[in-house]
Amino acid sequence: MSKVSNDQSTLLKERANFHQETQGENQLQQQQKKQWSHDDFQRLNYISKGQFGMVWKMKELKSEKIVAVKQINKEDVIKQNMYTNLKREIEIQSHLMHKHIIECYGYYTTDLKVFIILEYAQKGSLSDLIKLKQLNFLSEQQIAKIIYQLATALSYLRERKVLHRDIKLENILIDYNGDVKLGDFGCSVIDFYQKGRSTFCGTVDYLSPEILSIKQQGVEADVWALGVVFYELLYQAPPFQGEDKLQKMNNIYDQKWSFLDNQRQISNQAKNLLLQLLNPDKEKRFKPHQIIESEYIKKYYDPSVQII
């Protein structure tokens, strides 16, 4: 009998896990309306740490489906006056159903904590992927697939008047199939009248000029953040550098960024799309459907390309 290599063994285990999780999918969805409790889950291992708590990999015992559970400390929520944001995050994300958005199955509480039950992304985040690649750049075909999938998610959110407001590498996750999914809706809001919001939310590196100017912000701010992600995928570096937050914000406001031709030669189509996404005039910035229809996507998007 031929010996199974380590890589083959890992692949067989992944396929077995995926089959098991798929079997549990329908059972879990059928239970969404039930009252969850801590006894319904088995904690497997730690995934990451956030501002108000940690994210754990857990197994829902009845369906045996693997999920990610966001654990939030109630005391921290009260101290930071974030109850409304937390309630809004759960309400918004639990009503979103899109193949490139992390699904929220529900939540439960204890005396001290809130637990949000989320779809588990087996292959980590885009931030993890960039660290893994190190000096080996993603191909433009791989990047085009990522940008296309995220643009479809943004288009879906726009139709539902949802603003994400915290798009960044860490909040874009990768599932078993290698497809990307937008997660962490902690800053999200519903813009019912599509007049925009003027409140400050998000991560400095990804903030648009209109946010820094405390002007009304809409889907255009999410598109800007996607432009920053696009730049980071191309060059493995942020477009707006700075020794501290203030300098970074000044560079965003003054549009101090450039193509890093000495590090990597990218296509003209990529450069043109970057200019459209990082346009300081939000009225002229591309809309999600224009990204999908862009020359860059037309030339480089191939659904069969593997991201990871």
Automatic annotation (TrEMBL):
Signal peptide: none annotated. ATP binds at residues 70, 119-121, 170-171, 184. GO terms for molecular function: ATP binding; protein serine/threonine kinase activity. SMART domains: S_TKc (SM00220). Keywords: ATP-binding, Kinase, Nucleotide-binding, Serine/threonine-protein kinase, Transferase. The active site is at 166 (proton acceptor). InterPro entries: Aur-like (IPR030616), Kinase-like_dom_sf (IPR011009), Prot_kinase_dom (IPR000719), Ser-Thr/Tyr_kinase_cat_dom (IPR001245), Ser/Thr_kinase_AS (IPR008271). There is a cross-link at residue 168 (Glycyl lysine isopeptide (Lys-Gly) (interchain with G-Cter in SUMO2)). Residues 41-297 form the Protein kinase domain. Monomer. PANTHER family: SERINE/THREONINE-PROTEIN KINASE IAL-RELATED. This is Serine/Threonine kinase domain protein. The lineage of its organism: Eukaryota, Sar, Alveolata, Ciliophora, Intramacronucleata.
